[in-house]
Write a structure and sequence with these properties.
mainly alpha, two-stranded antiparallel sheet, 61% helix, BFD-like_2Fe2S-bd_dom_sf, (2Fe-2S)-binding protein
């Protein structure tokens, strides 16, 4: 499914960044865009991209991880995206 209509990127494009960036998997939508060689244009897709990345990481995560780990990842990703979007303005 197309997630970013500005760059014509699909959910599979974003989940593929997790497989190719080990061990430094993208923690934010902005990092995933960088892995794909571009950046967000209008930004309306960022929430969806964050959720796609979080779901993919959760599906691949070991059973030893805690919810704190997932929550920390989401907070770090949100903070990184906000900083990069502020810098772009």
């Amino acid at each position: 499914m197309i997630v970013c209509s500005c760059r014509v990127l699909t959910d599979e494009d974003f989940t593929s960044t997790l497989a190719t960036e080990q061990p430094g998997c993208p923690r934010s939508a902005a990092e995933a865009y960088r892995c794909l060689g571009c950046g967000p244009e209008c930004g309306r897709c960022l929430i969806t991209v964050r959720q796609i990345l979080a779901d993919a990481r959760a599906a691949a995560r070991c059973h030893d991880c805690t919810e704190d780990c997932a929550l920390r990842d989401m907070v770090e990703a949100a903070n990184t995206d906000e900083i990069l979007l502020d810098a772009a303005e």
